[in-house]
Amino acid sequence: MKSPGISAAALALGATLGLRLLYPAAQDTLRGYDAASQAAELKWEQQARAIPDPGKIRAAMERLSNQAHLAGTPQSKETAEYLLAQLREFGLDAHIEQYESMLPQPKSRTLEMTAPVAFRAKLDEPPVPGDKNSADPGMIPSFNAFSGDGDVTAPLVYVNYGVPADYDTLKERGIDVKGKIVIARYGGSWRGIKPKVAYEHGAVGCLIYSDPKDDGYFQGDTYPKGAYRPADGIQRGSVLDMVLYPGDPLSPGWASEPGSKRLPVAEATTLMKIPVLPISSADAQPLLANMDGPVAPEAWRGALPFTYHMGKSAVKVHLKVAMDNSTRPLYDVIATIPGSEYPDQWILFGNHHDAWVHGASDPLSGATAQLETARALAELTRKGWKPKRTIKIGFWDGEEYGLIGSTEFMEKHAGELSEKLVAYINTDSSGAGKLGLEGSHTLEAFLQEVARDVPDPDAPAGTPKSLLESYRSPGEKNNAKPSGAFHIGPLGSGSDYTPFLQHLGIAAININFSGEDSGVYHSVYDDFYWYSHFSDTTFVHGRALAQFTATSVLRLADAPLLPFEFSRLQSTVTGYVGEIEKLTTMKSKVDLAGVRAELARLEKTSNAFEAAWNRSLPKPKQAGQLAAINRILYQSERDLTLDPGLPGRPWFRHRIYAPGKYTGYAVKTLPGIREAVELNNPTEAAEQAKQVVQVLHTLGDKLEQATKMLGTL
Fold first, then answer.
1. Which fold has domain 36-102+328-558?
2. Considering the entire predicted model, what is its pTM?
3. Catalytically annotated residue among 45, 97, 125, 399
4. For the segment 297-326, what is each residue's pLDDT rounded down to a tens digit?
5. Which fold has domain 105-323?
6. CB atoms within 10 A of CB 417
7. Can you list the alpha helix ranges (DSSP code H) found in 18-52?
8. Which of 673, 246, 250, 712 is nearest to 497 (CA)?
9. Which of 25, 208, 231, 267, CA to CA, is 20 to 30 A from 347?
């Protein structure tokens, strides 16, 4: 495969940050491998990438999406048992781990407008001709999981996306939501933030609707003519307050297994206090069209055919939500390939299998590629391949409710995972767009090498190229030519990497191909018909995802010296410090000199580590020393965590990455400092800066130790 050239933009980056940031440039370099081990590795990788089959991915998706399989239902158990049978058929050692959780389902939902005119919302998604799954009688009605129960009648206020800044705008116009029901549109933040902020401002209920400007006809033709959300489409979803902690809300900090301790519902802190209901744009239209009050600012206006008003008292609605908050079972499917040399060093690859309805895009586009990865690894073992490290493959249940299956697994095995887990690889929904990579920046150089060695499924016939050649780093426009610089995005939350990275401090990466599934996201229309007509229609991106993950797993499992690299982490965190210093005039009140001093030290130790690395290629006879060095390397992400965790949410222990308190999924980098600055709290910002100094100093000490050990190889 042709090695990508270094562009002018990349050379400029090298002049600023050092050419090490573009490492590796040579095709024949595998970080962590000597010449002999690299030759064997490349042979196995080439075979692994030849195995994934688009036809098998298509067939698996069609089979797994043929019924709704919400977590906690018998259909979700059937899905887990099918995956288990497949893994065992491949020849893998696999089992199901059962957990349980509060998994709400709706008992009753009512939404009526009582003034100025009468209107009753349908709260229903009608079948689409030609799409048999859209008429599946086994579908559970649309709802927001972990909504509070309530029966309220009150005036309705439009709050745009329902984020804190929107309430500032309302206040400026003399509108108070206390004692009222709010209606927010999807977007701008994770959905669970909207009722949380509404409650904090005194609202008694919350409606969340899908505006066609964001994912409907404003974007393109609607389903079934096109990919976008039809007027009756509804986005389901959890509103669990996951920025406090994910997982079963009744077992915070311990695994919720059958018969285990459970909190009373009244003591759970992550449940919403007010009734919440998702609705379609068709049901929202008459409510919004009858609004009074000030005309909404331009940024608040959607694409419905009327003038958007904020509302004061003209529209009154009756909202009633009653939930069945029963405890229901969860089924995680786990496969293991034992390591031959370092069995107590683990690589874990996961994707969830539960869906709100049929879930062709979310999650089966990732889960079926994962199944192909598992098949590829199993075939290699039959050909004689024995990974040096133990490989574990997890199909998680209950992700949609709040990362529950993966969190309960983490809590049950926390001690063993903290001791043994080298890295966690995550996939979720995927499509037919460009490669997307997020994760721990100590694995950025590693991911660049993998992207260099996996073919791009969009390359024209006869002119093959690698995924690296077409990769666009975060922030680059989709229609722009890739700059040549390689960066990955940081991880916040929203998928199953969260408990491993944010709580245990295990290096994690998230891999997908971008896809435009917002038009059917979490609706009855996310099914095989939609996916096979409007997303990865040939399933070649699913094959590429399987190739990328198989290569990643093999390379991490077999590397004599684990491919962690620290200069990119140092330069990335330095950039985060600069962002915070530019945030407000409070810069003069927050002293980040200590953080910068530790980053300067980390730059020197990273350079020294690289120099020792380059002088000391690993040799098989030094396996004992390599194991000790590797332990320092994979424990390095733990060094970036600290107890107690972040202010007000101690579950989140990582000091470099966390989801924001009021963003939900979206990441806040250097979160303790950044959020204190945003709240204009210089005392807390100073304390959080000290904690960042502490974790960076610990990491620097460990890196110096590893450098000395490398010098003895």
1. Aminopeptidase (3.40.630)
2. 0.94
3. 399
4. 999 999 999 999 999 889 999 999 999 999
5. Glucose Oxidase; domain 1 (3.50.30)
6. 21
7. 35-50
8. 246
9. 25
